[in-house]
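Q&A log
Question type: sequence-to-structure
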Amino acid sequence: MTPQPPIAPTARRHRGWRLAGAVALAAVLGLAFWGYTSPEMSVHWENLAALCGF
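Response status: OK
Response body:
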């Protein structure tokens, strides 16, 4: 068995940023989903259509 070469510092740094981005995305999506569970916050299709330009 040949020993594996050590991971380059740049690869480790990229992995860290990717992990931080995934955690941030999960947090934002989780907060958004939690916000939609409240009765005051509901999807209004008219507003969604207006955002899309229809």
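Response note: Residues 9-36 form the longest helix (28 residues).
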